[in-house]
Specification:
mainly alpha
């Protein structure tokens, strides 16, 4: 009886990222889907620097999040502009629809951490040195998102001083109204008692909340029959704030799992620095309203 032989070992081709030349990236192909989604360019951007198996996952998730930040920025800038000039309930509802589209993006952002949930400390250490001092704190699209939420960080602009175009764009965002500033302008336009110093405040300073604004929101919620669009807006803004906190919490858990409390790559305290941010309540009046109730 002939001896059994082991089946031949089949090695599947591995996607290593590069492999697409500049010439191949330019010009139309025979595949309309590939052209529309710019797949040749997109799929050439994943370039691991080590042979560590988990590095490609880390790069893909990072790039996906940057794309989602870009999408959120686009939606939220549209919402801000709409609220700043809203004349009708239909205008407000258009802004609410954009916020809810953003909720889907925020949910996808939070779910993105699932792809890194099983990343062990040993797997992360295998490629961590390869990205040097690169850090999420340097993400300017994320900083746009934070500025639109009303956060103002003293060091945020300084990080980008060596890249004037990015620095100038962020400085303009920091000086512009946040989503919540635009909502205050709308409340005032609708006849609620929003003081001048809040409706026309210095947007480079972080808004800390105000009992007079809480009272205005309470009045809107207590007369929902006449302010249904404003109630929807308040709820949509709160959902936006809550989802962003959820993303930050998932970020912290992911860091704890992969590197514990070791210092971050850009000189931050790592998880300790992230931990301070998970308690921030964006749009503080909407949280205070829930503390005090509607009565």
């Amino acid at each position: 009886m002939p001896a059994k032989t082991a089946p031949p070992k089949i090695t599947a081709p591995r996607n290593t990222g590069p492999g697409i030349t500049a010439a191949q990236r330019s010009g139309p192909s025979e595949n309309e889907y590939e052209d529309y989604a710019e797949l040749r360019a997109l799929l050439s951007l994943q370039r691991p620097r080590t042979g560590a198996p988990a590095e490609l996952s880390f790069i893909v998730v990072t790039q996906v999040m940057e794309l989602y930040f870009t999408l959120l920025r686009n939606e939220w800038e549209s919402v801000r502009d709409c609220l700043m000039h809203a004349d009708t309930a239909a205008d407000v509802r258009s802004a609410v629809r954009s916020l809810r589209r953003g909720h889907g993006v925020q949910d996808a952002l939070a779910a993105s951490w699932e792809a890194l949930r099983t990343l062990t400390a040993a797997e992360f250490d295998a490629f961590r040195e390869s990205f040097g001092v690169a850090s999420g704190i340097q993400s300017y699209q994320y900083r746009h998102v934070e500025f639109l939420l009303g956060a103002r960080h003293p060091r945020a602009l300084a990080i980008h001083e060596q890249t004037p175009r990015i620095h100038d764009e962020l400085a303009a965002q920091a000086a512009a109204p946040s989503l919540y500033d635009a909502a205050l302008v709308l409340l005032r336009r609708r006849g609620f008692a929003i003081p001048d110093e809040l409706a026309h405040r210095d947007h480079e300073a972080e808004y800390q909340g105000d009992d007079r604004v809480v009272a205005a929101w309470r009045a809107a919620y207590c007369d929902e029959s006449r302010n249904a669009d404003l109630v929807d807006l308040g709820d949509a803004l709160f959902d936006t704030a809550e989802r962003h906190l959820r993303w930050k919490q998932r970020h912290l858990l992911s860091v704890w799992r992969s590197m514990g409390d070791k210092p971050g790559s850009a000189g931050t305290s790592g998880a300790q620095w992230l931990e301070r941010g998970v308690h921030r309540k964006y749009f503080p009046d909407l949280w205070t309203l829930r503390d005090q109730g509607w009565a």
